[in-house]
Design the sequence.
C-alpha cells in the first residue's frame, strides 16, 4: 500500500490534585479506546506528607485514537510538559517486504529442485538451503509484525505528579484569577504573621 508507515511516541508530564481519580479514569479511558497499559509504576504517599505520590504509565493507544486520548488527559489534568516524536519507517518496511518476495521466489525454486533431486546428498543440501530460506522469511515477517504494532499503536508515556495546587491556573475568568492570587497572597501574609507570633512568644 502507498500509506506511509509512521511511528509516533508521546511523553506527557502532568499535575493533578485528584491523583486516584485521574488514575482510575485514565485506566477506564484506555480500555474504552481499545488500548492497553504496557507498564506502570506508582510511588509515594498521600498528599501533605513529605513525599507526594507520582505515577509513570507507558500506554499503547490505537493511533487513530491518540489525539482523543491526549485531549482527555489535558481536560482531566494540567499538562506541564509534552514531547512528540515521529519516525517514518516506510522505506524500511518496503525494503523488508521486497526481501520477503525474493525469498519466497527462492523457496519455490528450491522446492522444485527438491522434487526432482535424485541423490541423497542433493536432497540433504537442498533441504538445508530451504530451511535457511524459510527461517529468513519468518524472521522478516516477525520484524513486519513488530513494525505494524508500533505504527498501529501510539506509545504514550504519562508522568503524573500529585500536587496540592497545580502550577498553572487554567482558563480562569479575570475575577477567578484575582481571587486565586488574593488567596495565595493572604496565605503568604498569614504564614508571615504566624512566624512573627512564634518569634515574639519565644
Sequence:
Amino acid at each position: 500500500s502507498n500509506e506511509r508507515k509512521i511511528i509516533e511516541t508521546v511523553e506527557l508530564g502532568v499535575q493533578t490534585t485528584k491523583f486516584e481519580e485521574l488514575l482510575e479514569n485514565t485506566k477506564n479511558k484506555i480500555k474504552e479506546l481499545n488500548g492497553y497499559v504496557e507498564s506502570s509504576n506508582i510511588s509515594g504517599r498521600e498528599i501533605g506528607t513529605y513525599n507526594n505520590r507520582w505515577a509513570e504509565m507507558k500506554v499503547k493507544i490505537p493511533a487513530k485514537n491518540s489525539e482523543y486520548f491526549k485531549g482527555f488527559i489535558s481536560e482531566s489534568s494540567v499538562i506541564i510538559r509534552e514531547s512528540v516524536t515521529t519516525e517514518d519507517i516506510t522505506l524500511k518496511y518496503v525494503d523488508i517486504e521486497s526481501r520477503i518476495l525474493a525469498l519466497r521466489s527462492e523457496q519455490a525454486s528450491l522446492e522444485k529442485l527438491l522434487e526432482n533431486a535424485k541423490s541423497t546428498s542433493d536432497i540433504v543440501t537442498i533441504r538445508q538451503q530451504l530451511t535457511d530460506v524459510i527461517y529468513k522469511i519468518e524472521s522478516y515477517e516477525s520484524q513486519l509484525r513488530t513494525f505494524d504494532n508500533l505504527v498501529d499503536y501510539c506509545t504514550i508515556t504519562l508522568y503524573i505528579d500529585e500536587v496540592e495546587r497545580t502550577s498553572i491556573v487554567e482558563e480562569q475568568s479575570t475575577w477567578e484569577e484575582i481571587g486565586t492570587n488574593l488567596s495565595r497572597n493572604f496565605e503568604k501574609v498569614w504564614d508571615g504573621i504566624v512566624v512573627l507570633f512564634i518569634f515574639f512568644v519565644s
The first helix runs from residue 19 to 32.
